[in-house]
Amino acid sequence: MGQDLIRYDVLAQDALRGVIRKVLGEVVKTGLPGEHHFFITFLTSAPGVRLSSRLREKYPELMTIVIQHQYWDLTVNDNAFEVGLSFSDIPERLLIPYSAIRGFYDPAVNFELEFDVRDMDAANSQDETGTTAPTALAPVSPNATAVKPLPTKAAPAAKLPAKPSKEAKTETGDAAAADEKEQAEKASADVVSLDAFRKKP
Question: Torsions phi, psi of 70, nearest 5?
Answer without folding.
Answer: -125, 100
